[in-house]
Design goal:
Layout lengths: L1 E11 L3 H17 L9 H4 E2 L4 E12 H15 L4 E10 L2 E8 L6 H13 L5 H14 L4 H13 L3 H14 L4 H13 L3 H14 L5 H16 L3 H13 L12 H14 L3 H17 L6 H14 L4 H10 L3 H10 L1
Antiparallel strand pairs: 1-3, 1-4, 2-3, 4-5
Helix pairs in contact: 1-3, 4-5, 4-6, 5-6, 6-7, 6-8, 7-8, 8-9, 9-10, 10-11, 10-12, 11-12, 12-13, 13-14, 14-15, 15-16
Length: 339
């Protein structure tokens, strides 16, 4: 049987000795264990310049056995590395049958320090400890792109935007294919109100990720929001439409953005003179709020009323009056204008 597969990523080995050993073991095992029933020849993926294993985005229909053999061999070879990651998906009609994220987990100091730093970076109040661990990873291997990216994130959380931007740039300089570094860099620019720069980096995060990754959709949603802020409505419509059409599993954290993204999509459509579609987007946002146990947002009611009015639909005054009763000052002004 064969299925669609997507594979991408890079593993850095740190020095020539580790690189040569990894390549030699790949060739030996390919012949001895897998009879060369693999997706990649060694010379296709082992790059001597930089001592790395690199698989640019590989998308192909492959036999399950070749995928299984390749994932097993790559999982073994990755452990000779010092940094990086490989992501592997096996798909059937868009459904994920198997996903593997392969990263070095050996007892090398740089590897263990990065793992510790990454885990601490996710814990509130552990930023200083995370910084120490990530500094150690970088001291042991100064081209650890992922450690720079995680350290940048910690700097951002500590409100050290200058240091965060420096580390994100360093990470991208080493590994220009890491979408997380571009997304993080966009957050720094966003905080500094440099929206065009933020949008540019979000575009790179989208380009360097695949639609199966959460970072891809986080980037699209934020990019749409920023285009809307800059009154770039066509661009905002493109990104927000894609995000709003995407269905995520019930437990996916991205669902928390759905309500606001629907509202932003409605605002965009209203500006593009599509009031009926805008009305549907506002209704969706209100329905999501209700389903998630949130109170009614009067601003959303006001805009739904305005969309109804522009579309020539009944009920627009009721929406605006309800928004006014809930304390929306703009709705109060509109009611006075109607009177």
């Amino acid at each position: 049987m064969h299925h669609k597969t997507i594979i991408q990523g890079s593993i850095a080995f740190g020095n020539e000795k580790s690189f040569e050993k990894a390549k030699r073991m790949y060739i030996t095992r390919a012949e001895s264990y897998y009879k060369n029933d693999l997706l990649f020849e060694a010379d296709e993926i082992f790059i001597e310049d930089g001592f790395m294993l690199h698989i640019p985005r590989f998308v192909k229909q492959v036999y399950d056995k070749a995928f299984k053999n390749s994932s097993a061999l790559l999982e073994y070879i990755v452990q000779f590395g010092v940094s990086g990651e490989l992501n592997m998906w096996l798909l059937e009609e868009g459904k994920i049958l198997l996903f593997k994220n392969l990263e070095p987990e050996s007892d090398k100091v740089a590897v263990q320090s990065f793992i510790k730093g990454k885990e601490l970076a996710e814990q509130t109040g552990k930023e200083e400890e995370a910084m120490k661990a990530l500094n150690k990873a970088i001291e042991k291997y100064d081209r650890h792109a992922q450690a720079y990216e995680r350290r940048a994130r910690v700097n951002f959380l500590l409100q050290k935007e200058h240091d965060a931007l420096r580390d994100y740039k360093k990470s991208i300089g080493i590994d220009p294919d890491n979408p997380y570094a571009y997304f993080g860099k966009s957050e720094v620019h966003y905080k500094k109100e440099e929206l065009e720069e933020a949008i540019e980096n979000l575009g790179m995060a989208i380009k360097k990720s695949v639609a199966l990754q959460a970072i891809h959709w986080k980037s699209r949603r934020l990019k749409g929001k920023l285009h809307l802020s800059l009154e770039q409505y066509k661009e905002a419509e493109f990104e927000l439409k894609l995000f709003n059409k995407r269905v995520f599993p019930p437990d996916n954290p991205l669902n928390k953005y759905k309500s606001e993204a629907a509202f932003e999509y409605g605002l965009t459509l209203l500006e593009l003179d599509q009031p009926e579609s805008a009305m549907e987007a506002f209704e969706k946002s209100l329905d999501l709020d209700e389903a998630e146990g949130r109170g009614v947002d009067p601003k959303k009611l006001r805009y739904r009323g305005l969309a109804k009015q522009k579309a020539g639909k009944n009920g627009y005054k009721k929406d605006i009056k309800e928004a006014a009763d809930l304390g929306d000052k703009e709705a109060v002004k509109l009611l006075k204008a109607f009177a």
